[in-house]
Amino acid sequence: MEAYIFPGQGSQFPGMGKDLFDQYEVAKKLFNLANEILGFDLSKIIFEGVKEDLQQTSVTQPAIYVHSVILSKVMGDSFNPDAVAGHSLGEFSALTAAGAIDFESGLKLVAKRAEAMQKACDHEPGTMAAVLGMEDGLVEKICADTEGIVVAANYNCPGQLVISGAVPAIEMACDSLKNAGARRALILPVGGAFHSPLMEPARIELANAIDATSFKTPRCPVYQNVVAKAINDPLEIQKNLIDQLTAPVKWTQSINEMLKAGVTSFIEVGPGKVLQGLVKKISKEANAASAII
Q: How many Å apart are CA 221 and CA 218, to the nearest integer?
């Protein structure tokens, strides 16, 4: 069985998708449509901009979504997954590629998500930190024992968990984690406390947009971040997508569930190779590769 996995924020790079734009009519059409929907020239920023241009949340999230979905489209008949999953933002790409939402609706939601997250960051500053070389349970316990808002946010792979929350609480937690034996507890250069209670204003804002969007049954099960289980029901998909902003990304758990279901091969659809690396750390037996067109 084959699962197709879709990357999230951090996988972007300047020039991504230019080869698709130049070679495929559908890619050109969707890039142009994205520019129209967003009201700015996304393709120009991606193709001609520098790294810093792509790091703005309002650009990053639509850029990765558009690139990932276009890649799934140009794969044509060879895009035939038994399951899909996306890491955080990548869940929107996965749902679009699997036919649960159309390209336009997905892009509007991604743009709304980016805008709502930015507003939440401006309203209440927060940050995130990567914790390496420590068991998840111990990280969770130290977070729970730390004063202020600090929670597990991304279960990326065994020994790599990202925490999220208010700046003073993250700083205190990092000190405690290092004292307790973490190999590293490193504050990340991010604009806010994603996948934490500090994203509640963004969750409420995005909920209205998701509720107003038409979702269909996907062509294959979608392993969603919030529950780390295969979901087919459109109403459940919507609920989990709303909850995702304040809940942790259960990536390790999702990959393990797919492995249990019989998935042996993971194909990364989108920029970069981050998810392939995580899959390999979760299971040495699993095959992981980039999508081939």
A: 7
| Pairwise CA distance, residues 228 & 220, whole Å | 15
Global confidence as pTM? 0.93
pLDDT recorded at residue 192? 86
Closest CA to 101 of 115, 120, 116, 86: 86
Is 88 one of the annotated active-site residues of the chain?
Answer: yes
User: In the sheet that 265-268 helps form, which strands lie side by side, from edge to edge?
Assistant: 230-231, 222-223, 83-86, 2-6, 265-268, 287-290
Q: What is the CATH number of domain 2-122+197-290?
A: 3.40.366.10
Active site residue 195: yes
Question: Which is catalytic among the residues 88, 93, 164, 176?
Answer: 88
Q: Average pLDDT of 210-234?
A: 96
HSE-CB for 115 with a 13 A CA cutoff: 10
Catalytic residue among 195, 196, 254, 283: 195
In percent, the amount of the chain with pLDDT more than 90 equals 81
Sequence ranges of the domains in the chain? 2-122+197-290, 127-187
124 has a pLDDT exceeding 80: yes
High-pLDDT (> 70) share of the chain, % = 100
Residue 293 has pLDDT above 80, yes or no: no
Please report, as a single letter, which amino acid is at residue 32: N
